[in-house]
Design brief:
The chain contains 1 helix and 18 strands. The protein has 328 residues and is mainly beta. It folds into 2 domains: 45 residues; 280 residues, no CATH class. The strands form 4 sheets. Strands 3, 6, 7, 8, 9, 10, 11, 12, 13, 14, 17 and 18 form a 12-stranded mixed beta sheet that branches. A two-stranded antiparallel ribbon has the order 1-2. The chain has a two-stranded antiparallel ribbon with strand order 4-5.
């Protein structure tokens, strides 16, 4: 949450308003931009299980070698699983992700956020690591509409094409991850990353970012300045048990290697261990995570105390105005 201070002179006094609160809102969405699906009232976007990677600055080793104050970039991507109503229930009857090749479409997101490590506990990568998502001009969250679904976690590609329909920048938040053991990196169906191991554990990240662009064919009543919440609260997990680790990641200008391994249409060559090394979370330099994200929409509203201060400020200005009028 950002602090929003308004200073009002009242009879020589200066009043600083408290930071604004946030209130969840329903957003009118046309899922396919005016094609077949009807407009719907959306409380949140429930993303399918996806991927994230932490990349330390200047080739430093964030895996197993993280230190207090270390800076890194976190990149993520996923496909939308469902639109949810104001009660958190999936909205059915849509062509999202099906049911036929001639009508289906996908929504995807890609993101990049600046983080700083605020706590490192344990040795060998085990223990709890905490991060602070810091405001940075490079922070960005994008939602894409694609009439030709092709986002694939195994390759890590197809999440940033089609039509850009929303962009949010800035962003602050917090994150935590606790590693407790080791296991195979890929525990989902077929193991596409033989000989890759990983730390195991769970964590979460929560980020707020400001909407700076939206396509009104898809977001029908959204207004710039609304606050979009990118919420990775459901799960940040290792090992991968609900989707494939991604061979590639998008850094907002080009693809780079995540798990690598020469996956078809992916990155790297077979057996190269990408940028996470043979033991993800230890050998690095980067660390990958399975993520399960949701996105809600919020608008800032003043706290009750702030409203009272606004009232006092307005009353004070009116009082000063009356005194000046009488003295005229």
């Amino acid at each position: 949450m950002k602090s929003n201070f308004i200073r009002t002179a009242v009879g020589g006094a200066v009043i600083a308003l408290a930071s604004a609160a946030q209130a969840g809102i329903l957003v009118s969405v046309d899922p396919d931009g005016g094609a077949l699906d009807p407009s719907i009232s959306v409380g949140s976007l429930d993303w399918a299980v996806g991927n994230s990677i932490a990349v330390a600055d200047q080739g430093e080793n964030v895996a197993g070698g993280a230190y207090l104050g270390q800076k890194l970039w976190a990149y993520s991507h996923a496909r939308l699983a469902s639109f949810q109503d104001g009660s958190g229930n999936p909205i059915g009857g849509l062509n999202l992700n099906g049911p036929s090749a001639t009508t289906n479409y996908e929504w995807t997101f890609v993101s990049k956020f600046r983080e700083e490590i605020t706590q490192v506990a344990g040795t060998g990568g085990l223990g709890t690591t905490k991060t602070s998502v810091v405001a940075d001009a490079g922070n960005i969250f994008q939602i894409w509409y694609d009439p030709n679904p092709d986002g694939t976690n195994l390759t890590g590609k197809g999440f940033n094409n089609g039509i850009l329909i929303l962009e949010a920048k800035g962003g602050v938040g917090t994150g935590t991850f606790t590693a407790v053991g080791q296991g195979n990196l890929d525990g989902f169906v077929n193991n596409d990353y033989l000989n890759y191991a990983t730390l195991t554990g769970e964590g979460s990240t929560s980020i707020n970012a400001e909407v700076t662009y939206f396509n009104s064919s898809y977001f029908l009543d959204l207004v710039l300045g609304a606050n979009i919440v990118v919420d990775f609260t459901s799960q940040q997990r290792l090992n991968y048990n609900n989707t494939d680790p991604s061979s590639c990641f998008w850094d907002m200008s080009a693809y780079f290697s995540g798990a690598g391994n020469g996956i078809t249409n992916g990155c790297g060559v077979a057996g190269d261990f990408g940028t996470i090394g043979q033991l993800n979370g230890v050998t690095g330099p980067n660390v990958m995570f399975q993520t399960d994200a949701s996105t809600g929409f919020n608008q800032r509203v003043p706290e009750p105390a702030s409203l009272a201060l606004v009232g006092l400020a307005i009353a004070g200005l009116a009082f000063v105005g009356r005194r000046r009028s009488k003295g005229a």
